[in-house]
Amino acid sequence: AQERRPLNVYGQINRGILLYDDGVSHEVYPFVDNSKSVSRVGVTYDDTFSNGWRFHARGELALRKRETNQVSQTDPNDSGYRFDRTQIRKIEVSFKHDEYGTFSIGQGAMSADGITGLDLSLTTVVAGTPVQDASGGQYLRLGDGSLTSLRIKDAFRSLGSSRRLRLRYDAPIRGGVRFVIAAGQEVLSYTYSRNYADTSLRYDGDHGDLRIRAGGAFRWVEDKPNVFIASGSLLHRPTGLNVTVATGHEMNSGSYGYVKLGYIAQWFKLGQTAFSIDAYQGSNIAGQDGASRSYGVAVVQKVKNPKIDIYALLRRYEYDTQGAVHLPSTAVL
Question: Which pLDDT does position 4 carry in this prediction?
Fold first, then answer.
C-alpha cells in the first residue's frame, strides 16, 4: 500500500478562450481564467492523535488573472487585478472525530458554500447554477446598442455562500445526512466587513441504480436580505442519465430556478464523456421588474491519467425590464 504523506501540495490550472457577442460587438478573450472553478494552488497537512481526533490544516491561493467574471468590453485585460489578500481562498485548521464531528476555524467555506451546486452531471467544471461565471464581467447592452452599467454577474446570480473567516461545525454523517453550521466575518475585502451566519443540511446516498445528492441552506448576512438556497441531483448509473435542479430566494427580493439535464457516456478508454443542457430563470435579481433567462449546452471529456478536463460551453443570456429593452448576448468558453 502507498504510504500516506502528512504534507501534500495540490492545485489546478483552469484557463481557456472566451468568445462573447453582446449583439453589437464580437470579442475574443484568450487565456482567461474560468470563474466557475478558478486556477489555484494549495498545501495541506494531516496528523492523527491517539485519542481518535484527526488534525487537518490547509492553505490555498487563487491564481485568477483575467478571470471570466472580470474581463469586459471596456477592460479586456482585467487591468484592476492585483495579487493581494483577496486571492486567499483558505487558511484554516480543523479537528475531526468520528463520534463528535468536525470543528473548523479560519478562512474557509461557510456551511452553505457549494449548496447550489449539488450536481452529478460531471459538467460542473464549466456549467452549473452560477450561469454568470462564464462571462460575468461583461456589460449588457440596451436595444439602441449603448452599453449599460449592468453586468452579467449582477443580473444573473445563484445567491450562494462563499468563504469567510469563520467558526464551523460539521456534525457526524448519519445515513448519508450531514448537518453544518457556521458563523464568521468578511475580512479580506477592501470595501466591506459584514458578519455572516448560515446552516445547511445535505444528503448523499445510493438507492439501487440511483445516486442522489441534495441539500438546502439558510444564510444570514448583516444589512442584507436573508437567503434560502437548495439544489438536488439524481443520476441513473446504468444509463448515465441525470437531472439537476436548484433554487434560491432572497427574502422580499430576487429569486431563481435552475434545471439541468445530462448524459454521461463511456465511449473512450481515456475517460467519461458528459453532456448537459440547462436553463435558468430569475426574477428581480438585479432590481425590481427584472427578468433573467439563460440557456446553456456543455460537453466535458474526462481524462483519467493525467487528470484533465477538456470542455466547451455555449451559453445565451437574456434580460428584460419593464422600462428598457436589452439585447441578448452569447458566450462560448
Answer: 63
